[in-house]
Amino acid sequence: MSHEIRSIIEEFVRQVEIAVQVDARDQLASSLGDVVTGRRRPGRPKAVRAYGTRPSKGRRLQGQYIGRLRKLKGAKRAQVRAMAKKKGVAAAIALADRLAK
Question: How many domains does the chain have?
Fold first, then answer.
C-alpha cells in the first residue's frame, strides 16, 4: 500500500476512535450526572386513573381479602382461604373479620 493511502486510513481510524470515546464519555456523564446532581430520573410511572374513576368491585374485594388475610396467621388464615374457595371472597372477608376479633 502506498504511504498516502496508509496515512489516510490511519487518520480515519483515529477519528472513529475519538468519536467512539466521546460518545461513550457523554453517555457515562449523562447517566452519572443524575447521581451527582441529585436529579431524579423517571422511573416506573404510578398507575394513572382517569379523574373520578374507581377500581372495579372485584378489585376492591380482592384488596380487602388480601389485607385481612395478611393480619391472620396459621389455622385462622387457612380457614379464611378455605372459605374463599368454597363460598367466595365476600364470605371469606366476613369470616376474617369475625376471626380477627
Answer: 2
Q: Is residue 75 part of a domain?
A: yes
Place of cell 468519536: 19
Grid coordinates representing 56 are 372495579
> 33 and 64 share a domain?
no
- Give a yes or no: residue 66 inside a domain: yes
Q: Residue-wise pLDDT tens for the chain (101 aa)?
A: 688 888 889 999 899 898 888 888 877 777 666 555 555 556 666 666 666 677 788 889 999 999 999 999 999 999 999 999 999 999 999 999 999 98
Three-state SS letters, the chain: CCHHHHHHHHHHHHHHHHHHHHHHHHHHHHHHHHHHHCCCCCCCCCCCCCCCCCCCHHHHHHHHHHHHHHHCCHHHHHHHHHHHHHHCHHHHHHHHHHHHC
